[in-house]
Amino acid sequence: MNKDLDYLYNSLLLAMGQEYERYQELLITIEDETEILKKCVLADILNCNTKKEMILLSLNIALDMRISAINKIAEYLHIDKPVSISEIIAHAHNRIGQNLMDYQEKFADLITRINKVNNNNKHLITFSLANVNNIISYINSLTSSHLNYNPAGQIKAGNLHGRLISQAG
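Predicted structure:
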């Protein structure tokens, strides 16, 4: 392999390393988010969301760097686009190819863990929202007066059990 191609592959490895670090930061942040959601402090939730946004922006930059490196390698090797990482690995020397395959495995594991934690947080939020809606419904039932008219416009008789009824005769 020549120096230009070595440089391109090393650029790809560097980009993948940076992207992997961003994904690790994202995992740590959403794991922290689980505890933040349980504490239910608005300021902490907003700070966590801001941190996730920043990580996602830097993750997009790292992703763009990886895609650019892959495209440069594909162009150098005269591989038609779209090109997969597997095609790039197939053209790499043993050490570089093995490093790229290692990253593929690491990414797969990390993405699985992120999805699991993210789904747990989603269920926690869904459960919390359901509780809030139930509480609001309960408070509304306590504060609203019962309707006195039925849909036909007549006065509702309501539940007459236990009431004293008198008749004039």
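Summary: Residues 3-128 form one domain.
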